[in-house]
Design a protein that fits this description.
Layout: H1 2-15, E1 40-42, E2 45-51, E3 57-63, H2 69-80, E4 91-93, E5 97-100, E6 136-139, E7 152-155, E8 168-174, H3 176-183, E9 204-211, E10 214-216, H4 234-242, H5 245-265
Antiparallel strand pairs: 1-10, 2-3, 2-9, 3-8, 4-5, 5-7, 6-7, 6-8
Helix pairs in contact: 1-5, 4-5
Length: about 290
Amino acid sequence: MPLRRALVLALALLLAPGAALPAAASEPPCTDESCEVGGGYVNATVEIDVTWNSLGGNITIMLYEEGAPVTTGNFIRLTATKFYDGCKFHRCIDDFVAQTGDPNSKNSNPYDDGWGGSGQTIPLEINGTLTHIDGAVGMARSQDPDSASSQFYICDGPQHSLDGNYAVFGLVVGGLELAKKIAACPTYGSKRPLLKDHPVDDIVMTSLTFTPGRWVNATNATAGPASGAPLLTQDVAWALGAGGAAAGATLVAIGLLRIRRRLAANRVQGPGGRVQGSDDLHALTHNPEP
């Protein structure tokens, strides 16, 4: 009964007129053991190993599994099947995006880059709390909103003109400097108009490594939920900061209900217990300007 009263009171405070919600979050959810101080959900990540002359390195993408389940599910599936291994960055525009994920880029003909996909498409998945901030990762597509397949892009700087039209499903949390260098790489430009934004050098994703998200228990905490109780997922916490009052209150209500159910079951349900879908947007191709 005390737990029920606490949950009802918390929800009432959030929904009350004039109730204050947290200000917009200044940083994305944590992706490592730093979450363990207060406990919570560590988001899944994908680490991309990039080969590019002497400037190779790694780019780590944090996935918004809760906020974009269809898109992240598609991305995880393609990563797990090694679909992306060997794909090149085929479209690079300084201060805009670096785009990759087309299987056509694995061959030696650059003229068909940007036109390929996985053979499957997914519906457009828009989450208003996930926007095109610097380092955001989104699914590219053709003019058909539901044509997203495998191609994705990394934002070089905020690109809010894309909000609402292309699905954001992740954020670069490591190697953003490398991603920006890729976006600014030398391209053919006017020398080859059909390859205007195509890199002159091969910039290859040699391998992608997926690390599942996980729950971590609170440590060194003087107060907190009962032992083993899950906290709100990091996606929900992030949405609270980025979303409006109505969206935030709704997400918190859902989170509180999830906590109650899991406490009743006396167990923590990790990410493996959630259904993961595929995603939406397809690939900013040569045709549409995102």
